Amino acid sequence: MIINVLVTMIKAKRKDHSLKICLTTAGKAFYIIITILYILLVIGGAAFGIHSALNGSNLYLNGISTVALASLLYAFQIANIVLVGKKNILIGRLLVDYRKMKKVDLNNRREMTFVYAQKSFSFSTRWVDIALLRRSISRRS
After folding, report:
1. Transmembrane region positions (predicted)?
2. Deepest in the core among 47, 89, 123, 132, taking most CB within 10 A?
3. Cα(50)–Cα(113) distance, rounded to whole angstroms?
4. In sequence order, what are the beta bridge partners of 125?
């Protein structure tokens, strides 16, 4: 899932060069820290699993579990990254045209809800730069 989200971001940036990451400074720091932590957990879990397997111990399953759990948690967090552009907004893997968004609501509970293609969507705005998001949505007409 991590590769899927990253490939979607790269493809969307190729189509719309105006897309940029819409994160606060704390959000950027948070994602840098969890990326470094994820890399360390994957390398450490893989090394522990290989070392345990070579020694004939059954503890190698703990290393595999660590890698799987770290990947799952990192995938959930990376799917909340928002990219805004002149015409589109990319939320995880969902590329939305501003002009087709209806009933946009940025509430104070750290989430944004909107209707797109007759479906209701909501996402967390905990690490999102709200001012930049509001500006980009208000230009959508």
Report:
1. 21-48, 60-84
2. 89
3. 45
4. none
